[in-house]
UniProtKB/TrEMBL annotation:
Top-level taxon in the UniProt lineage: Bacteria
Protein name listed in UniProt: Uncharacterized protein
Length: 95
């Protein structure tokens, strides 16, 4: 019973603090794991810069893309941003 409890707690901690995104590397899709800066049950994130070679203009971002960037920046990099300027998009490019 104790082992089951320990496994359950470790699974919960992993779900809260481990995330991933997929990146295209040399024609193959790789899964990149990371430790989240803030706990959340969201595990899969989207790094808009991992698959695009070009820099995305903030004016052309859809609301969905903007929200994905905000989530990625907050949980992967620890930045709280509203992604209103091009500099905000570039800050989320780091790492």
């Amino acid at each position: 019973m104790k082992k089951l409890l320990i496994v359950a707690v470790l699974t919960l901690v992993a779900a809260l603090y481990v995330g991933y995104y997929e990146a295209l590397e040399d024609g193959d899709v790789e899964t990149i794991l990371f430790i989240k800066k803030h706990p959340t049950f969201q595990m899969k994130f989207y790094n808009i810069h991992a698959n695009d070679g070009e820099i995305r203009k903030v004016e052309r971002l859809t609301d969905d893309e903007r929200n994905k960037i905000i989530d990625y920046c907050k949980y992967r990099l620890g930045f709280d941003t509203k992604v209103k300027t091009q500099n905000d998009v570039e800050i989320c490019r780091t790492k």
